[in-house]
C-alpha cells in the first residue's frame, strides 16, 4: 500500500498544484491528440457545461420532488431528444449515466416485458450484429440473457441481413442495430433490421449511443443516411449519449422508448424495507444533478444551428483527412459518412503503428478486425489535422521499416 488515508488535511492550493502536475501526463485533448474519450467542442462550450454542472453539483437527481429544477431539465432534455429522433406521440424516455447504462436499461425493460407477457426468459437471447458494442454482452451477463452475434460484410462492414434473420429463434426477445456502429462508423440498415424484428413481434433497439447526436446534424449538412430513428415503426427503443456528440459533461445519456408502456418496465419499485417505497428509474440510486444540468444547458446553448455548425467542421475535417490518408496509401474501411474513420494499410503492423503515433503524442483508437487505426473526429481535430498527417507519415515509415516500438491499445 503506497498511499495511506491522510491523518490531516492538505490546503486546496497544494492539492490543486499536485493535480495539475498529474494532468500534465494526460493526453492533450484540448489540441485534438485523442482519437476518442473526449468530445471537445471548444472553450465556450466547455465553460457552459462547467458552470452548469457546478451550479447543480450537489443536487441529487434521485429526489426530483426536492429538486424540481432537475425534473424540469431532465424532462426537457428528453423532450428535445424525442423530437430530434422523430418519436411518435406518447413516446417516453429518461436520462442515464452513459451508453452502457442506457443499454442495460433498455435490455432490462425488454426482458421484464417479455416476462410479463408470459415468455420464459430463463434462456432468452438477444440477436445483434458482430459490430455491436460490448455493452450488450455486459447487459446479457447481468440480466442472464444469451447474446448471439451475427456476421457483417468484410468490405461494407454492414450486417448480413439473411444471417441476422436466421439467428432469430423462439427465445429471441430483442434485436439490435447500431446507428452508427462504433468500430466502422457505418449506420446499419435499421429499416430492414427493425422490420425483421417487427414482423416477428420482437423488440428492436437502435444503439445510437456514439452518433445519435451527430447523425441528424450531418444530415442537415447534406449527408444521406438510412432512416435510423423512430420513423421506422419497428423501433421500440433507442439510446443516444449526450456526453459524446451532445458535447455534454460526462455522465449523460438518453434512453428513449416508443411508448410509456414500454418504458415502465425500466424502473425498480421496492417497498419491503423499513424506509418504505423507493422508486428508481435507472440502475443508479443517487444521480448527479450536474450531469442533467450540463446536458440541458449545452443543448439549449448550441441549438440545432450550433450542432449543425460543429458537424460541418467535422465533416470538412473528415474530407481533408480522407485525402491525406489516400496520399499516404491508406484505405478507409466501411463507407462511413459520419465522424468515425477507420483506416489501415495492407501489411502494416497495427501495434507498431499505434506505438509510433503514441510516441508522437497521439492516442488514436484502433480496431483489430481489420487491423487499423480509428478516430472519432471532433471539432478539436480541425486544427490538429496537419500535425496528425505529418506524424502519421513519419509513423507509417517507422512501422514499415520495422523500427517502431509496438504498443497494444485496449479500450480499458
Ligand atoms: C455504439 C456505442 N454503444 C454504447 C457505448 C457505450 O457508451 P458508454 O461508454 O458511455 O457507456 C459506446 C461507447 O463508445 C458506443 O460507441
Task: Give short descriptive properties of this protein.
seven-stranded mixed sheet, Aspartate Aminotransferase, domain 1, 13 strands, 412 residues, 2 domains, binds pyridoxal-5'-phosphate, four-stranded antiparallel sheet, Aspartate Aminotransferase, domain 2, 15% strand, globular, alpha/beta, single chain
Describe the structure.
By secondary structure, the chain is α/β, with parallel strands linked by helices. It folds into 2 domains: 29-41 and 304-400, Aspartate Aminotransferase, domain 1, CATH 3.90.1150; 49-299, Type I PLP-dependent aspartate aminotransferase-like (Major domain) (Aspartate Aminotransferase, domain 2), CATH 3.40.640. It is 40% helix and 15% strand. The protein contains 12 helices and 13 strands. It has a 7-stranded mixed beta sheet with strand order 1-7-6-5-4-2-3, with helices on both faces. Helix 7 (190-199) links the parallel strand 4 (172-178) and strand 5 (203-207). It is globular and about 65 Å long. The two termini are 23 Å apart. The mean pLDDT is 97. Bound molecules: pyridoxal-5'-phosphate. Residues 98-100, 103, 133, 135, 178, 182, 207, 209-210, 241 line the site of pyridoxal-5'-phosphate.
**Overall body shape:** globular
Can you tell me the CATH architecture of the largest domain?
3-Layer(aba) Sandwich
CATH level 3 topology of the largest domain: Aspartate Aminotransferase, domain 2
Give the beta-strand count. Answer: 13
Number of individual domains: 2
Unique bound compounds: pyridoxal-5'-phosphate
| CATH homologous superfamily caption of the largest domain | Type I PLP-dependent aspartate aminotransferase-like (Major domain)
Number of helices: 12
Mean pLDDT: 97
What radius of gyration results from the CA coordinates?
A: 22 Å
With strands numbered from the N-terminus, the spatial order across the biggest sheet is 1-7-6-5-4-2-3
Instruction: Report the order of strands and helices.
Output: HHHEHEHEHEHEHEEHEEHEEHEEH
Major sheet: 7 strands, mixed
Helix content: 25-40%
Strand content: 5-15%
First and last CA, distance: 23 Å
CATH structural class of the largest domain: Alpha Beta
Q: Structural class of the secondary elements? A: alpha/beta
Low-confidence stretches: none
